[in-house]
Recover the amino acids of this structure.
């Protein structure tokens, strides 16, 4: 392993926070220390790079916080980094602090940012996929997805109890800005009657077919992704059109899905990808995202990392089977 070139890594979290980010930060610090590399953390995503807002990282301090949700480095969506002016300031910060590599934990927007930044900055960048939405190619799972699904499940189970007690139709909106992964996983595993996602056009037809005859002693549970083109309000009014007698409520789970301690799976993913990202830098890799494909570590060039707008065929078949 060649560790001569990299002496000082900068790391930051960016975009929406996700459970598991702290595990990854801990693993990065631990691996870097073991190979004699200094690590600095930039606070608030690209904003910290622009403002030179950085803190020294010591693994024993991060060890205490590895199990916590959120990100101890804080995160942000930075308008200033979208402008060349902002990116030039970020470059000055890196030069002034002699940072010779960057690791970013975030979603596809963060990686697009790195690609744009690479036009004026030629130090190596490594990405770690961190978003609850799980909508990034090049990895089976993103950091935080499993925890968010677990939170959604826990809450949907509770809603189902009250829905059954009152024979109510409940529409539960889960997160996923443009993606249905949280909805599919949480809907299937809570026995939802209908699951609505942006990637499917048929799901709404199945829902109306089912709900028009709904007149039972059970709950009728609809899990809808916030990214779905129809949305909870319209779904509600369409249900009332086809079945005016239903007693219906809408619950939005919202940001509760982003918080909480990470699941075992997300903690392990954070540790694996944190270690992999430092190792990738030591091996001379640049501008790649570290992910896990078929449970094997995998590096994908940023240029090939895209926002996933399709769920895989197997999940679509499940949706078809359980949605009808
Ligand atoms: N094309 C781009 N050029 C420069 N910076 C970008 C670009 N796209 C996104 N970014 C930066 O990445 C940040 C995070 O992206 P965002 O889409 O909000 O979250 P995520 O990384 O979770 O997808 C943005 O706030 C912006 O600062
Ligand atoms: O916290 P905000 O800025 O309101 O963003 C909400 C969005 O962030 C997410 O929670 C995760 O998005 P990211 O891709 O930025 O991680 C989406 O599911 C949701 O639409």
């Amino acid at each position: 392993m060649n560790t001569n070139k990299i002496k000082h890594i900068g790391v930051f979290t960016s975009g929406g926070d996700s459970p598991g980010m702290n595990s990854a930060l801990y693993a990065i610090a631990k691996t870097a220390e073991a190979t004699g590399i200094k690590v600095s953390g930039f606070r608030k995503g690209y904003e910290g790079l622009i403002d030179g807002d950085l803190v020294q990282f010591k693994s024993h301090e991060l060890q205490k916080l590895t199990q916590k949700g959120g990100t101890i480095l804080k995160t942000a969506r930075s308008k200033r980094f979208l402008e060349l002016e902002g990116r030039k300031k970020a470059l000055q910060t890196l030069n002034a602090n002699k940072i010779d590599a960057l690791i970013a934990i975030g979603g596809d927007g963060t990686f697009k940012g790195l690609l744009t930044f690479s036009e004026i900055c030629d130090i190596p960048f490594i990405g770690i996929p961190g978003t609850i939405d799980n909508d990034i190619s090049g990895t089976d799972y993103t950091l935080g997805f499993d925890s968010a699904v677990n939170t959604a499940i826990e809450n949907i189970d509770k809603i189902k109890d009250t829905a059954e007690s009152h024979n109510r139709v409940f529409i539960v909106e889960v997160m996923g800005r443009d993606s249905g992964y949280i909805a599919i996983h949480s809907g299937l595993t809570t026995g939802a009657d209908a699951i609505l996602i942006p990637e499917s056009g048929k799901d709404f037809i199945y829902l109306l077919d089912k709900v028009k005859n709904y007149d039972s002693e059970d709950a009728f549970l609809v899990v809808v992704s916030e990214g779905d083109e129809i949305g909870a309000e319209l779904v509600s009014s369409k249900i009332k059109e086809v079945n005016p007698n239903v007693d219906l409520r809408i619950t939005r789970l919202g940001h509760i899905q982003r918080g909480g301690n990470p699941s075992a799976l997300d903690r392990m993913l954070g540790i694996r990808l944190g270690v992999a990202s430092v190792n990738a830098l030591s091996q001379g890799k640049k501008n790649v995202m570290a992910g896990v494909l078929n449970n094997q570590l995998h590096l994908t060039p940023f240029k090939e990392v895209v926002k996933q707008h399709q769920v895989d065929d197997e999940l679509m078949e499940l949706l078809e089977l359980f949605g009808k």
The longest helix spans residues 145-166. Residues 277 and 290 are 6 Å apart (CA to CA). The chain has eleven helices and eleven strands. The chain has two domains: 3-131+138-143+262-304, 145-259.
